[in-house]
Write a structure and sequence with these properties.
The chain is mainly α. The chain has one domain. It is 85% helix and 0% strand. Helix 2 packs antiparallel against helix 6, helix 2 packs parallel to helix 9 and helix 6 runs antiparallel to helix 7. The longest helix is centred in the first third of the chain and has 30 residues.
Length: 252
């Protein structure tokens, strides 16, 4: 449990760390942001497939494949519902940072953007927590590491819009901290859920894998390919994927 708590805090604090970088690097280049995000996407893809989905099939018994497919699509549908209820993260962040002068940005729109990120963090936290249900600490840490990597640029990107509409630095930091706490809560819920009911573990693993695949395909990859850095982003994704493969081989 201590390891789970430390991992949950690490995943949540990654957003806070990104927010601190956002104060220091007020306008990070798209190229740097795309490379970091793409690396995280590669790690998340490998973690979703080898750490969650493959485990779901193994633990599901004779119906493992069907449970896994159902779980993957359930995770994706969950993320679709979140996107339907909230504005698309990257479209909104782009509009705040590029299309409109910061001083004329709507306070409500910026706060809605932050709330959208916070809610998206919940299923990501669940994925990190569910990973510990397999008993393979190395795999669980790698899954959490991929999510944490993705949270760093996410934390960076929420600071500039808030400062741009006049939110004080201290309050902006507290808001970023709140989005990280949501991820901590999600991690603990995921771990406790599978810990007390191992019967749901195969479905929960596939569900978590589905949310990670959806976020990677729908959010991260399009974002990294939207600013003319497609080649760098693709190779960064491959590096992240291979790093995850190497890590998985070493701990396995």
């Amino acid at each position: 449990m201590v390891m789970v708590l430390m991992t949950a805090l690490g995943v949540g604090l990654a957003t806070v760390f990104g927010a601190i970088l956002g104060f220091i690097i007020k306008n990070p280049s798209h190229r740097l942001n795309d490379i970091i995000l793409a690396f995280a996407a590669g790690v998340m893809l490998a973690a979703a497939v080898f750490g969650l989905i493959a485990e779901s099939i193994d633990l599901g018994g004779k119906n493992g494949l069907y449970i896994t497919v159902l779980g993957i699509f359930a995770g994706a549908v969950c993320m679709i519902l979140v996107d339907k209820l909230l504005p698309h993260l990257h479209n909104l962040s782009e509009s705040e940072q590029e299309d409109h002068p910061k001083k004329n940005a709507s306070m409500n729109k910026v706060l809605l953007f932050v709330i959208a990120i916070a809610i998206h963090n919940l299923p990501e936290g669940l994925a990190a927590g569910v990973g510990f249900g397999t008993g393979n600490t190395g795999q669980a840490l790698s899954i959490a590491g991929g999510i944490a990597l993705q949270n760093i640029p996410e934390g960076m990107v929420i600071i500039a819009p808030m400062l741009g509409v006049g939110i004080k630095k201290r309050r902006a930091f507290l808001i970023a901290l709140f989005t990280g706490i949501i991820e901590v809560v999600g991690t603990l819920i995921g771990y406790i859920g599978v810990h007390f009911s191992e019967a749901i573990l195969p479905f929960a693993l596939a569900f978590a894998g589905g949310t990670m695949l959806y976020v990677t395909s729908d959010e991260i990859i399009p974002e990294t390919h939207a600013h003319g850095n497609e080649r760098a982003a693709t190779f960064s994704l491959l590096v992240g994927f291979c790093v995850m493969l190497l890590f998985d081989a070493l701990v396995g």
